[in-house]
Design goal:
Distance between the termini: 35 Å
Order of helices and strands: EHHEHEEHHEHEHEHEHEHEHHH
Bound molecules: ribulose-5-phosphate
Strand order of the largest sheet: 2-1-10-9-8-7-6-3
Strand content: 5-15%
Length: about 300
Amino acid sequence: MSDHITIMNEKTGRIVMLAVDHGYFQGPTSGLEGPGKTIEPLLPWCDAVSPTKGVFLRCMPAGTKTPVILRASGGNAIVYSDPVELERELSIRASGVADEAAREAMRERIADEIVNRELSNEAVTVSAAEAARLGVAGVSVSVYVGARYQKESILNLARMSDEGRREGLIVLGITAVGKEMTRDARYLGLATRIAAEHGADVVKTYYCEGFEQVVRGCFAPIVIAGGRKVPEREALAFCRRAIDEGAVGVDMGRNIFQSAHPVAMIRAVRSVVHDDLSPDAAYEMFEDLSAVPLTE
Ligand code: 5RP
């Protein structure tokens, strides 16, 4: 492990990071409508937090001491940005389709495809020098392996690794997945290794069947994202499996802040990561904490 990775918990060598960067391409996100309000009660329970520049500058609770890994790639959104391409594709594919409803359904499908392709068209949005000036511990950059802008996104990470190193920043490589990409061990193994090869100090990916194979193939430490919100018991179970199979921690968002009891959930996740609790014991902890009115 690179010796400048200073964000791991000193006792366990693992990490619980709170991901609050979702708005950078999806805008208002359930649970993050007021990012500051969401983040504040969770901060005592995380080892690091990963916001966007906007959230970091405007919404972080005053006096936050928790290390920050700043989202540093972006530049796209979940709406299609090229209506000309959309109409062109529609006229090609729907040439024999007279039915208005069928054409509309096709338009939506094509728009979806275009969004998925274009989301990979990211650039670096915060320079390493600016991130260092802001006093953050590190930056995160997504790579879109297998997507249209694969090369550009990998080069974003490679350059950030060069520049980040000069500024003493930790660089987190994120293996972004589009709707059309299978989250299996083969694909995530490829994407995580490519991120490590291009200089990521830590790689963020998803848990999948055969996760050990992903970890074995990647010489950089791996943290998992949570993905879409699932029941708490399920999220705690895949956290446990990820740690048992070699992840060094989590960088988790929706499964924490979209829980009806975010503080109880982050504490339960923390107990899986740092105290090696079983999923059942962690879920019991979640339920006990959920029953207690919040005083934090
Ligand atoms: C996108 C991301 C997300 O914005 C986020 O950090 C993922 O967190 P979660 O899946 O746990 O909500 O990394 O590439």
